[in-house]
Design brief:
Layout: E1 10-18, H1 21-35, E2 38-41, E3 45-46, H2 54-57, E4 62-72, H3 77-95, E5 102-109, E6 113-118, E7 126-129, E8 132-141, E9 144-147, H4 158-178
Antiparallel strand pairs: 1-4, 1-5, 2-4, 3-4, 5-6, 6-8, 7-8, 8-9
Helix pairs in contact: 1-3
């Protein structure tokens, strides 16, 4: 029988889709109040790969990412996604316009992969609890980033991949420092 070992801690990341920098900044503040300091934040990338969010969020959207200094356990991801959904609801009351001021997509980065949380089921997504699914987004290899058939189109752009490779470097350094 194989020995069951505890999971290695992983690096919490969160994607933020927004129309105004003020909303992004407030989201980062709220997220860091809950999950601790941000250790890396991306630039704001134009979010032009789908019009899915436009009816609720407006026509000019951006996506940014943050990673957090404190590592988490991978099994925390479902609860984190439920919490970020509640945070999105609180932003509706705070900002009033647009109808949906922010979309928050938490996930985690391990040495080998980027996993994002979603409430939407699909054939390649795995239920992880509380109505939340894990979506394997990217793989990390010695040669860089490997895309998958279902990788979201915006995650294919080099700017995202460069950000996640930088987060991975921080994460690997954190793991070495813990040893």
């Amino acid at each position: 029988m194989a020995e069951i070992k505890p999971y290695k801690p992983v690096k919490l990341v969160c994607g933020i889709i927004f129309s105004r920098e003020e909303i992004r900044n407030q989201a980062e503040v709220s997220l860091s109040e809950k999950f601790g300091p941000v250790d890396l934040a991306s630039s704001s990338f134009p979010f032009t790969y789908t019009d899915y969010y436009q009816p609720q969020m407006g026509s000019v959207l951006y996506r940014a990412f943050v990673s957090f200094a404190r590592l988490i356990q991978p099994e925390e991801l479902a609860g984190i996604k439920v919490w970020t959904n509640h945070l999105e609801d609180s932003f509706r009351l705070r900002f009033r316009t647009p109808a949906r001021p922010v979309n928050l997509d938490p996930g985690y980065l391990s040495a080998s992969a980027l996993v994002m949380a979603t409430a939407k089921d699909f054939s390649h997504r795995i239920p992880i609890g509380q109505g939340i699914y894990a979506h394997l987004e990217l793989l990390f290899t010695r040669k860089g980033v490997k895309l998958l058939d279902w990788t979201y189109p915006d995650f294919k752009q080099p700017g995202y991949q460069e950000f996640f490779l930088r987060v991975r470097e921080i994460y690997l350094r954190q793991l070495r420092d813990q040893s």
